[in-house]
């Protein structure tokens, strides 16, 4: 396993609770849209066994051509040890990246793509939307639906409805309205439905989409193939 050590180059306050950590791109580090990585603090591998409390699975919110690695995450007042340490890191602090992989690259199958997310889940979808804006080939339309009760929406420069680019950005602030909108979207029985959020959020969305007649192969999750069967059993 190769570990890439790098430094925090910039810290962006996206909203009162969400920060993006911009990291220098280490030599040889590569990724694609929809990628996640293991993000670790100094000392995580100092002992005989890795200190898992200093490691988190994070989505990369940038694309390679941006020449930096973006890690966007929510940090609440009451948070985990990892988030507490992260909140106190400064520009120039060392962090590590390893086991980088994409489970949700943008599928170009001449279908409409629906991006369903909760809150900071938009960070996973930002690179997919940018990739689509760069090259729209074989994608009919992208519709993003995000539920966020804070109304402090992320990446509003990108996630805004742009008709000439066949892109729709939609926000709701409660579950009832969210599932009403998902039901409308699921009328497209040929669409691809990407879902990002907590495990509970994934399971609820899968159950709802399946009830609308959406097939398992149409639902895309940011989960390792070995874990997919737990969420999407084959009919």
TrEMBL record:
In terms of domain of life, where is this protein from? Bacteria
What residue ranges are annotated as transmembrane? none
InterPro entries listed in its UniProt record: FNR_nucleotide-bd, Riboflavin_synthase-like_b-brl
Give the signal peptide, or none. none
Q: What is this protein called?
A: Ferredoxin--NADP+ reductase
The species this protein was found in: Paraliobacillus ryukyuensis
Biological classification of the source: Bacteria, Bacillati, Bacillota, Bacilli, Bacillales
